[in-house]
Structures are given as structure tokens and as C-alpha cells.
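Sharing a chain and its predicted structure for anyone who wants a worked example. Both blocks are below, sequence first, C-alpha cells second.
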Amino acid sequence: MTLGVVFALVAGLVWGLVFVVPLLLPQYPAALLTCGRYLAFGLIALPLGWLDRERLRQFTPADWREALKLSAVGNLLYYLCLAAAIQRAGGPLPTMLIGTLPVVIAISSNLRDSHRDGRLPWRRLLPSLGLIVAGIACVNRVELQHLQAQTDFDLGRYASGAVLAIGAVVCWTWYPMRNADWLRAHADRSPRTWATAQGLMTLPLAVLGYAALWGWSALGGSLGVEMPLGPMPQRFLLLMLAVGLLASWLGTLCWNEASQRLPTSLAGQLIVFETLSALAYALLLRGQWPDKLTLAGVTLLVAGVVLALRIQPESVSSPQP
């Protein structure tokens, strides 16, 4: 279990990097960032897949279909929503909304997997939920004040960013539970091989997406940047390779290792490492020390997750036939 927590920590540290990429490439549309990141992930997975080809041959068509579903929702759709949210609402608010994932996953697991994993008592979950909502409210207040001080502040754009971030939360509530289902049902399979398989399934989706964007641009459609690499090609390529290797492949590998070692409800709580890393990276990029209200929001968020972690699942009797 200790090793599983360490893997979850490393996954959170590298996943936090994806929150700053849209801020480092503000001119690039979210769709191009998404396709670029996962094109890099897929290309990195090709040589890894060749080295692991013997294990990959053990996968059934059903396994490959599951990897495709996980890649489409947990990779492409999730990051499309997240990148667009960050570009519209800034870094901290989407980060804190993603920070609700530990409790959202716990609630979803309560409803979906209680007979397998036990049920967390609802009366004991409510205080942690209240703390997390309060933490989000604190950071949201700080960000609104920061954005309203800008001359080009657009409340509608900020609100749409929040909605997109909620879409990202939905995607990443579904993904870890389905991913954990497969890993726990295939305990004899390598988490590294499963990460590579998801990269291989992401590649054709990313190629199709990139080709569609390029074709749209060639036909006169407006993307805001010149295809294929935009106005900062070197930075774009380096960042896509970095997040493709670190955040996509290494992050997925570490998360798979954690998911195979930890109960789903506990692994879900440890996504808080991603939230804290992303918030720290965003504030470092801004060159700003968090003010008291932001620190209070972070403290409330962490306290809510710690409180949820202390809740022991209660066994649920199987229904009588």
C-alpha cells in the first residue's frame, strides 16, 4: 500500500504539469494542444509497444476496445475540456474544480461499487464535502477579484471555463473507475503494458484530430494559429513531447501501478496530489505567492480530503436471491 501511495504521488506531480501548458501556449486552441499532446503520447508508445509486443499479444479484442474507450474519454475529451477551461478561466479555478475529484469519485464509488469495496457512510462524507466546497469558493473569490482587475475581463468567458472544467471532472470520474475495473480484473497483467496500450489506442484518434484541424485550416477555417506548429514551433514541440512522455505515459503508468495496489476509493482520494501540484505550478508561473484566501482554500481542500480518507468503508451485504 505504501508503494501504491508513492506511485499516486508521482502521478500527481507529473499530471500537474498539464495545467500550465495552456498558459505557456495561450495562442494555441485547446483542440490543437489536445491533439498535439496525445500525438506525442502515441508516438512515444510505438517503440515501447514494440519492446513489449509479447505482452501486448495477450490482449483480446475486448481489451483493445476498453483501451480505446479509456483513451477517448480519459485522455482526449478530458484534456480538451481542461485546456479550454484553463485558457478561459485561468489556472487556479479549473485546478480547484478538478480538486473535487477525490470526493466525487468516493461518492460515485459509493453508488457503483459498494458491494465490492464497501460503502462510505454518507453522514460522515458530508463534512468533507462541505470543506471542499468552501475551499473552491475561497479560490473562486480570489480569481474573480484578479480577473476583474483586468481591463479585458469577460464574465461569460470565465463562466464557460468553469462549465468546461466540470466537464473534465465528469470525464475523470468515469476514467479511473473503469480503468481500475480492468486492472483489478486482470491482476496478472502489467500496468506498464496497459499504459502503453492506451497510448497506442490514443495515436489514431490524435492523428485523425490533427488531420481534421489541419484540413479545416487549409479550407480557410479559423484556428487562430498557422498549422501545423503554430507561431512558436520549438516551444510547442518541446512541451508536447514533455507532457506526452511525463504526464501521459509516465503518469498513466504510475496511476496504473497505484490502482492495482490500492482500493479504488483510496486511490481516488490521492488525486489531491495533482490538484496541489497544478496550483503550485500555476502560481509559480504567475510569479505570485498565494494570498491568505487562496491558502485558506487550499487548506480547506486538503482538510476535506484528509477527513474523507479517515472514513472507513462499511461492508454491504449482498442482496438475497
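Comments welcome. The two ends are 35 Å apart (CA to CA).
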